[in-house]
Amino acid sequence: MNDLRKSRIYYTKPSITELESRYAADAATNGWGERCYEYIERFEDLFRQHLGVRHAIATSSGTGALHMGMAGLGIGAGDEIILGDINWIASAAPIAHLGAKPVLVDVLPDTWCLDPASVEAAITPQTKAILAVHLYGNLCDMDSLATIARKHNLYLIEDAAEAIGSVWHGQRAGSMGTFSAFSFHGTKTVTTGEGGIFVTNDDSLYERVLTLSNHGRARGDKRQFWPERIGFKFKMSNLQAAIGCAQMERIEDLIAAKRRIFEYYRDTFANLPLSMNPEPLGTVNGYWMPTIAVDERVTFDRSALLDIFKADNIDGRVFFWPLSSLGLFDAQPSHHVSYSLSRRALNLPSYHDLSDADLARVCAHVTHVLGAAR
Ligand SMILES: *Cc1c(COP(=O)(O)O)cnc(C)c1O
User: Fold this and answer.
1) How is residue 289 annotated by DSSP?
2) Is 187's C-beta closer than 6 angstroms to any atom of ligand 1?
3) In angstroms, what is the span from residue 76 Cα to ligand 1's centroid?
4) Is 321 exposed, middle or buried (0-12, 13-18, 19+ CB in 10 A)?
5) Each residue of 11-62: pLDDT tens digit?
6) For residues 133 and 328, what is the distance between their CA atoms, to the nearest angstrom?
7) Which residue's CA is the closest to the ligand 1 atom numbered 14?
8) Measured from the CB, is residue 88 less than 6 Å from ligand 1?
9) What domains can you pick out in the chain, each with its CATH number?
10) Model pTM?
11) Any alpha helices (H) in the chain, and if so which ranges?
């Protein structure tokens, strides 16, 4: 007998239709020889148009896009890059690989993103860039960060991997930085399985990163196999780009699905002692990952709720840990907001095709645990 209540509710999984399958099959059958870059070029074009930026280079991962972009800016040994303490390691790893130092600062309690005052306080003569990570779809305060970056002559880089569909006062997340990186990992709003993209409006940075992305070979060079510097090999394949093209044709629907899911949770939890991803006036949140942060004054056992989910075959995820708590960097327990969030916040299932019945199943557990705590 089928036990429907126990059907697994994944926290994310891609939305794949007949269109993605058709393009992938076409790339596998025909996307070779003269046509081996067709889907890649089309994907880069579609993404540029969506964001409203001048240049895009598809990559094998979001981490790779960040790595090449920073290398293109000349970031290296002795440089400091400021980012929020509570983050996924992918944002910090490229900084470390380049020999630079990730400088972690606390985040704001409402957006869970960089606190501009802490950013400014952390600037030293070694600071090269601010890395604005738009966490879970929430936007960093781009006006304040841009002002600080201008004043101190720093690059402002956006890690927009989680911010497809997010808009800051008319400008899409990822269109405002010196450069930006996105990820198309299978958990993200738009997917190519694995993949990413580097985007910029800066013509000369684009040329430098294009050369880096091609194993250091400049595109104007007539000599074969002639790298002018040590570069990278972080390319997206035509097969992956084919799936990406289908996803880009469906991007408005993919974003709308994320918003529908978030709104269901938000409306259901309206009276519970918790906050969720904010959407300040003048902004749009792409709501990549609906997240609840239980009020600090409430006694809440996060792992108990995750265990209840697990018993009902529902995936939940802990909020990212403070990077400074991992043992890889100096511990910074004075980052009160980051350390507090990490104890009382978690991500809820949010794949595009999640049904209202499944949403209700998730909500019932949250309401049961937190309804009494009001
Ligand atoms: C997913 C993600 C990345 C890395 O993307 P990959 O494609 O997995 O390399 C980087 N930054 C953030 C904020 C992410 O969520």
Assistant:
1) S
2) no
3) 21
4) middle
5) 999 999 999 999 999 999 999 999 999 999 999 999 999 999 999 999 999 9
6) 19
7) 161
8) yes
9) 18-105+112-249 (3.40.640.10), 251-371 (3.90.1150.10)
10) 0.97
11) 18-30, 38-51, 62-72, 89-97, 116-122, 142-152, 203-213, 238-249, 251-268, 302-311, 336-344, 356-371
